[in-house]
Amino acid sequence: AAAAPAAPTPSLDARAEARASDPLEGATVWIVALGGRGEVQPLIALGAQLRKACCAVRLFGPDAFQSLAESSGLAYRQVGQGIRALQQSRELRGCHHVELLRLWVEKEVCHTVKVVLAYLEGAQPDLLIVNHFGFNIAASAWRARGIPSACVHVRAEPFPLDVKRGGMPGFLDFLHVERSCVVQADGVTPVQHTSFSEWCAWLDALPCLMGTTRLVTEALQEHRHEAAGAMAFVGSLVIDDQKPLGDPAMFGSSNEMRKLQVFLNKGSTPPVYMGWGGAVAEKGPVHMVLTACFGLILCNLRGVIATGRSGMSIELFREGIVALARSHTSITPQDIAWYVDYLESNVLFVEAAPHEWLFMRCSCTVHHGGAGTTAAALRAGVPTVVIPMTGPHYFYAHWVNVLGVGVGFDTTSMEDMSGELLAWSLRHVTNETRVRARAREVGQMLRREDGAAGALPHIRGLVGDARSGAARARWESERQLREPTTSEEEPPDPRWAVVVQETLAEAATCSEDVWVMTDDSYHEHSFLALAVGLRRAGYRVTFLGGRPFRDLAADCGLGFIEIFPGIDAWLQRPGTVEKLSGVDGERTAAFWGWFQRELAVASTAVLSAMAEATPRLLCVSRNLLGVGIAAKRRFDVPFLLVHRLAPWGAQLEPEGSDMVACEALGLELGQPPAAGEEEWASAVEPSRTLVCLPGLLRGGVPPEAAELYAFTGFWRLDGLPPCDGETEQRLDAFLGESPPAALVAWGEAVCHDRLWMLRTALAALRFAGLRAVIVEGAARLNMEALSQVARTPVDPLENGAFVESDVMFITACPPLRCLQRCACVVHAGGASITAAVLHAGVPSAVTPLFGENYFHAQVIQDLGMGKIAGDLRVIDRGSLAFCVRQVAFNESIQHMATFRAGELENDGGVETAVALVSREIQSRAGVG
């Protein structure tokens, strides 16, 4: 046959013109793929699409994916072993999957960051693409080198959406990675020396592509649709379903693949796929294999079970059923033999399997609800059953229910699953014509989406921005905002190295006037404790605070000056709770409006009082720091800054709350170069700051800050009854009944509406098998709200969910001895409740909402005294129930909580704080 004519070679001019018209032509793009199969494979698919567009692509990822990436034509740099290798290590075989993820972040993520940053030393790609584990790399690459980045999310549960909305999830993880490796590699600290608002602004500016279908937004709560609408959903990033077949790492080995193909071909009906990824139920692999196998046996179905890290097998089933037979005499040896024979003929156990290829050859899928697994199951066009293992999985279970493509157990985890319940779900999805038809319809829709091709226009714009020089110009313009890599400042004098007993002895002879001032009703008990301690040390003390504390201050022998009505008075106004229940922007505007008015009133009141009498020293809370500076400027009154919460860094930047003193100061705070910049710096030197936290929590604070601040321990006001005597008696009786009760104390946190909060709390505790003691708080969670929930159930499960005898409402946090009788405490990580649970030694399930909440939540988790359930804005009852069960019935957490409480008994607390205040007064005695 005649040879086909060769295509003409384009001229150099034509190539240059093409390159000018398409920025992707010849562009260099680096992709950092951190995670497991669900995170890495989509980025390989994106890299292959970019290579087709004539980009030079380099992909950094775990060794297990090297052959798959290279078969797609990508230059691959292996970094680490990946999370799967960690899951399979013998020494971690019994480790909980949440703890595994933490270990993986500490080891693999930090190692990857070091490798990528080292490569960036000698290269300058046009664009860096990361997933949600790679924020540190993106931040460092931009801060140190001006390399622009884009984030590609393949998970659509609330995490990435909340990050884009300025939420806090993950901030402390990014901070840990930065301390572990970014500082050593680059010398820059984009997270640590960035205020939280700046961090959120940077995340908002980071281009973000959602590598999943927009159908996922149907499962989002209404208040989240606006955030989702601003994100680019490009569709799922999928590798050709045949490509993984050439890589034995995708399914264990070539031998396993042959066994899988033989098994699929020999049966008359397609099998059921079952697999739970790398997660293992707390009840253990035996519970998992018994549940899975009995589900198949009861429905007379064939199955393929991917064992993952659990090690499920026929041998493990035999061990489990023999043990079960000892307590159930109805199970005979003949039954056991029949079960084993059935499994040997109808069930195949494999280590792993290629999802895209296998799922469409199954009658339905049963899985844990991972993002990638759920997407693959939906694309297959067959019904699916989701049995969650941990927090994000409940979101995908809910999504399956919303789409109508199967059964999602969004309120039940693997811990509570039984063979009978699994069998019911299998019968439903395989026999219900409507479900199978809907699954086919959704599968066809998703298979038409080409996420990799859909991402190209967005990436083309980013590369064009970089290659045109616009990105570099922005980076140059930000140069003055970047911190230097080294500091030549002298370390401050360690003023707080004092002997407490000697200082207190000296203080007993003093009769100086000290004013203790705070702005927040929820923290005033601690400041009141400091004031009482100073009075007992011989000082004349005046307490400046909210109206609710007037009588209490008088009972403690303190002078009192009311400087604001207090947050309780504001919360009782009509419409306030409704405003706080709105979307984030409305809630923030409402709270900030009140806060500005409150601070303005406090500023005027304090300065007016000082015109009549001048104290020797003023102790101020963080939000009244501007007032302290104004007092120093006008009346030459020195002040000490008292942190009720943890300090984030060594430097205190001006905040909105400081602007209330601008007029009195004549400064333009926060607008560098400000007229009073030097005065601000000298006024807030860290050596004059007390922190009302025990040294036990020092590890959660940046090291340079931990060395500067004085950690005194918690301040408690002994003998203060948190609730009235009658309530205390009823609470004692309630806690003495069975089953045990959990305390829900969300304090000032208000999210969505109060009925949503109450429904979530009650349903979660019901699923956890606990009764409820609920502190009314700012959301007004009370009996009236409970009656509204009962009148308007939104879910059949709410009918009869809680009766009046199962729940008790109180208006304030209970006394310490009552707190110690609770199975656990559900709270938002506020400073006061955190102090209470740490002292009581009670496990915590924390649902943080505000910035400082996340610090306290992370500290509780790091100390082993509880778990972070998830952001209060996005938590669902299934995730909360899972976390509550983890902390309330886990002996190791209970023992650790008791142990840590014992450690805190040795804290100096108020005594240490009084000694430090005394030393400050004495050091100034000779000063004019």
From TrEMBL:
Per the UniProt entry, the signal peptide is none
* Sequence segments annotated as region (Disordered): 473-493
Q: Name one GO molecular function term.
A: glycosyltransferase activity
Report the Pfam families cross-referenced here: EryCIII-like_C
**Residue ranges, compositional bias (Basic and acidic residues):** 473-482
Tell me where on the tree of life, at the top rank, the source sits.
Eukaryota
Q: Which InterPro entries match?
A: EryCIII-like_C (IPR010610), Glycosyltransferase_28 (IPR050426)
Q: Give all residue intervals belonging to the Erythromycin biosynthesis protein CIII-like C-terminal domain.
A: 342-442, 805-893
Q: Which organism is it from?
A: Alexandrium monilatum
Name-wise, this protein is: Erythromycin biosynthesis protein CIII-like C-terminal domain-containing protein
